[in-house]
Model the fold of this input.
Amino acid sequence: MTVIAETVNLAIAPLSPQLGASITGIDLGQPLAEATRRAIHDAFVRHHVLCFRDQKLDEAQQIAFSGQFGTLERHIARNRTGANPLVNIVSNLGPDGQPSGKLSSTRWHTDKSFRQLPSLATILHALVMPPDGGETCFADMVAAYEALPQDEKARLDGLKVVHSWELSRERAGGKATPEEIADAPPMTHPLVRTIPETGRKALFMGEHAAYIEGLPRDEGYAQLARLTAHAIEERFVYRHKWTLGDMLMWDNRCLLHRANPNFDAAKFPRVLQRTCLRGNAPA
Done:
């Protein structure tokens, strides 16, 4: 393994040529020294996806770790699997505790883009994983934007997109409840947002992006679909093959992600522990 940075006993190494870095030499169940916290934040901004190996955090410890990087946000009612609204257990288990055959979050999306303040970061901790498959896939929306022709960049800058939990549920074959619609009304964000720490621009869309303001809905949705097809080309994608104990922390401002349904979800359990940090209004 080629180490590209060492700070406060941390070893930071690339996960792929596209994006991502692994970090070893740290126990996330313990409070972070300020220098360590800063080093992790800087790596987060630079690499977009961080993987901390060999962790074993309960809900309270994951909340404590996450809170060192921002304000935790609650999950929508559908995703609350326990009493704590700050933790979501992502799993394919049914009410009987056995694999159900159903896997959620398999469409490309960025977390909570339908909120006024979409997620800054998602922290996902592997508790139980299938023996093979079930990767989490990431698409680099900074690289995808920068690869567009200059005239298309100019055309996209300034466009606004309506993000809707209700419409994304309909397109996935489901139905949002009245409670969910009231909790997450449609929200408008720029199609191209700027990452404050770097000044680089990123496409901001995904499953919850319903249509482009000022265009007929079908036309706007077709444009979003075309941009998504561009953004998920292999040259922009990293697939994370989970190892038990991995904890991923990724930047929702500049990534799309999805779960890979390439395993027998009716036979093998896949269980992860999730927290999210609230971001700022995209600009």
Observations:
- The radius of gyration is 18 Å.
